[in-house]
């Protein structure tokens, strides 16, 4: 790695990334992200356009108070206006006043834009580029030129596109980033454009791709292989329209697959953390299937795959997930085999021998439940409870007797409210009846169940429902369709997911709620104080065979 070619990483999340629909970062968010990018080993961080809004101007003031150990901050702007000398252009003055050592300017290289957008002669555009770069070079340590629409311009009028690059090069530019601004070019076109640029200029070249054709990462890699030394992109591919080239994928591809130097190897392990931080601050739901860092990136479902990775992880994983800070996961489904069950048992800390006859029963139960609509991809806690019950290792912490839910709305201007009544038999054999009011039936059921159990198990005070999802399974049945409810819970130390399925959304929610409570009690090591577990019924627990016969049966 020591002798490998170094590729400069130029991050534009704080500017181009903020052009994503529904993405907005505060000044504090941008400073936090900049610090994490610096720690990762990013070479350039584009802070924004100081002339476009107060927030970007404030960022450049705040970032001066922060000690960065590696990255250079770049201020962004456009070339001077037509008819105005660079020394009199307000936009260029703001770039200089931002106080950064690096300035990046975007300018036209496609004759269509010069004629249609700027409405000036082609020769005048060349003068604008030269004047802008030469002026900035007198005031800044380093100037980068983003050659906007270069590849489209090169395809339409190669002579003019190359002339634009030469104008910037002759003015003393440090790096020219060749831009696929519309994101419509393919790797072979990128390579052709890079090679033509290399033959025409002597400065360093970079690549700046958008993802409108789903090849921004591939185009960036092709450009590096063709000889560029700088790659521009954003974290998680945030950006206008379909986004920018995703640095989270580009970095490991360059470093682990192609052998280039991008960031220190140990810092590569922070990729998943950086990705998650940007998603969180941008208030964007992480993409589970995102390569390298997504939750599903190293998740295995098919029994054949799980069997393979247990023998040698390379059979179904292109890299060790820990290299980028991710983890291997195994999920259960109707595609699962004995290998999945054994893997999950070890993950749960259960000692199950490969020859255990109950593994077959567990596989049958799993397939039966999935046939009814249960999924355990996001509900490991429910599956662990299914495993415990099937293997005869489950404990009983309380027994269900009944519940009722009432919904009321007394007049049009009042919000509806729900009341739930829950009857359980506690570990001391005493039945208790508790009622609670909530802003909805699930909220009320949760509160009533908690009232019944907290006197026996005080640790349930810490239990919180943090996510709730409902999915309709039989779309052809309208409001009579079966639904699947997924609940995510937290107790301040860990998160876990549970699932319920029923034609009744309240029943499905109850199943997931009960599983959430039982999982916490199991993990807390709460000791059972009543007789062995009875059969599961449609609402949690049956007190005895007569009660079970009188109530609807639950799938598991």
Structure description:
- This protein has 18 helices and 16 strands.
- The protein is α/β, with parallel strands linked by helices and 556 residues long.
- The longest helix has 20 residues.
- It starts with 7 loop residues before the first strand and ends in a 6-residue tail after the last helix.
- The C terminus is likely disordered.
Q: Give the % helix.
A: 25-40%
Report the count of strand segments.
16
Q: Write the CATH homologous superfamily of the largest domain.
A: Aldolase class I
Kindly give the count of domains: 2
Number of helices: 18
Detail the poorly predicted runs: 528-556
- Overall geometry comes to elongated
Instruction: Describe the main β-sheet briefly.
Output: 8 strands, parallel, barrel
CATH architecture of the largest domain: Alpha-Beta Barrel
Estimate the mean pLDDT confidence: 89
For this structure, the quaternary state is single chain
Q: What Rg is obtained from the alpha carbons, in whole angstroms?
A: 30 Å
In CATH's first tier, which class of the largest domain applies? Alpha Beta
Distance between the termini: 54 Å
A few lines on this structure:
By secondary structure, this protein is α/β, with parallel strands linked by helices. The protein has two domains: 8-282, Alpha-Beta Barrel (TIM Barrel); 399-550, 2-Layer Sandwich (Double Stranded RNA Binding Domain).
